[in-house]
Design a protein that fits this description.
Blueprint lengths: L1 E5 L9 H6 L7 E6 L2 H6 L4 H20 L4 E4 L7 H12 L3 E5 L4 H14 L4 E5 L21 H14 L43 H14 L4 H4 L12 H6 L4 H9 L3 H23 L22 H8 L6 H13 L4 H14 L4 H11 L5 H11 L15 H8 L4 H6 L8 H5 L16 H17 L1
Parallel strand pairs: 1-2, 1-4, 2-3, 4-5
Helix pairs in contact: 4-5, 6-11, 7-10, 10-11, 11-16, 13-14, 15-16
Length: 463
């Protein structure tokens, strides 16, 4: 019997592990999912994404049922218990081969290593690549190590993709009806627990809907992505990041759908997919970033702020900076934030309020439906000037000029801060000098706080 272990790849299409397990038409195939809510909590994943994953597992079970493949749901709770849970299941089902798609974070790698070692001699383990366009070990520098600068990494990825275009495995074909029949499994869950999300509405993540959304985006909007992606009042992005994060759509499907529209038209969006790969490469080649450590040692010499009142004001959209508060309101209410705004609020927290980037990283993980450790970690380290390819410490986003440039008519701000809806855009953009009635004053002076951050980084670099 072949066992397919689903993890961060909750789909039946474009799934290398599932396809490989189905190749032998004479072999029975069973799927398994290991629920690890305790591990999610240890990793800081919030209720929004937890609830979304549970929804996706239910959808996966229904999709597999149409293929006459049963899904066994185990509840090991934490990674340390997964190897023994899979061993017991393999023994009970007389499994000969286990198939799974590789995951790149450090603790997931340790879990998988333990599984392979425990099953050695009893179950053959087959690992596939499905998390990235190019496996991290395929793109290395002249010294054989991982890249630290995105531009050099991206150039090599493009060359690799031109020579080795990614392909999707064949669409799975239903097994015989009797494949669905399975005796009772010891420890299997019949019903998933309910986790209540904090956001008002969950994104759509079922495979068919997401693929349709992806195709519509590539047909109608990807050619304008470069011009529109930085304006939060415009729906100019794909909005499939949550599905991509939990694996109900594959990055290969994204790449293929985008490039079919023409390389020139889709190049900017494809570049974002490569950024996603880059942060996975960093995580693979420099695993200390998975331990709460910054890539650059300068981080250890910085004395971050500990003003909890200011931190709570940032979380609660009470900073007195309209674009920051509008962005944080969007995050708190929807579990999602526009990418340009993620950079603005991250720069503000780390450079103007001078908080440890880990505070912001953790809050985003708690709130986001599309939480992706590699991208979230890489983005926050970039904004704080402590990561690979980081923004120079002296280059600090000015939220006042950012909001004038990317929300000039204050449409986004008025949408999420209704208390400012009656003000003109001009008045809103003058928030630093003119107090807006019914709205809090800025918690810090942007120029003074910027100078403090730059000077602090200068001293830390010398230390």
């Amino acid at each position: 019997m072949n066992l397919v272990w689903f993890r961060n790849d909750l789909r039946v299409n474009d799934n290398p592990a599932l396809s490989a397990a189905l190749e032998d038409k004479n072999e029975r195939v069973v799927a398994v999912y290991c629920l690890c809510i305790g591990q999610w909590s240890q990793h800081g994943m919030g209720a929004n994404q937890q609830s979304l994953i549970l929804q996706a597992v239910n959808l996966l079970e229904a999709s597999l049922k149409k293929l006459n493949i049963p899904l066994v749901i185990l509840n090991p709770n934490v990674f340390d218990n997964v190897p023994m849970a899979l061993l017991k299941l393999s023994q009970q089902l007389n499994v000969s081969s286990l198939y799974f798609n590789m995951e790149y974070p450090l603790f997931e790698r340790r879990r998988d290593k333990s599984v392979v070692e425990l099953l050695e001699g009893q179950v053959a383990c087959h690992r596939k690549v499905a998390q990235s366009l190019v496996a991290p070990w395929e793109i290395v520098n002249a010294d054989g190590g991982g890249y630290k600068v995105f531009s050099a990494y991206a150039r090599k990825v493009h060359v690799h993709l031109d020579a080795n275009p990614p392909f999707s495995p064949l669409k799975p074909v239903p097994r015989a009806a009797d494949n669905l029949q399975l005796a009772a499994i010891e420890g299997a869950m019949s019903v998933l627990p309910a986790i209540e999300q904090t956001a008002e509405l969950a994104p759509v993540v079922d495979e068919a809907s997401v693929i349709n959304q992806l195709e519509n985006f590539c047909d109608e909007k990807v050619s304008q992505y470069k011009q529109q992606r930085d304006y939060p009042a415009i729906t100019g992005t794909s909005e499939i990041s949550s599905a991509l994060a939990i694996g109900t759509v594959s990055v290969v499907r994204c790449y293929q759908t985008a490039t079919q529209t023409g390389v020139t038209n889709s190049s900017t969006w494809v570049n974002e997919l490569i950024w996603r790969d880059f942060y996975r490469s960093v995580m693979w080649n420099y695993p200390h970033v998975c331990k709460g450590q910054a890539f650059r040692p300068v981080d250890k010499s910085i004395r971050w702020s500990n003003n909890q009142q200011q931190l709570e004001a940032w979380k609660n959209a009470e900073t007195g900076i309209p674009i920051i508060d509008a962005a944080m309101t969007q995050l708190n209410q929807t579990g999602w934030m526009h990418n340009r705004l993620r950079m603005i609020v991250a720069s503000y927290l780390t450079k103007n309020l001078f908080f440890d980037w880990r505070q912001g990283e953790a809050y985003f993980a708690e709130q986001l439906f599309d939480f992706d450790f590699a991208s979230n970690n890489g983005g926050w380290q970039w904004s704080a000037s402590v990561g690979t390819d980081a923004a120079p410490y002296f280059r600090v986003f000015n939220p006042a000029s950012q909001q004038k440039k990317f929300d000039s008519q204050a449409d986004f701000i008025k949408q999420w801060l209704p208390q400012l809806s009656e003000y003109s855009a001009k008045a809103i953009h003058q928030f630093e000098t003119v107090q807006l009635a019914g709205y809090c004053a800025p918690q810090v002076d942007l120029k003074t706080s910027r100078k403090f951050a730059i000077e602090s980084f200068k001293q830390a670099r010398v230390a």
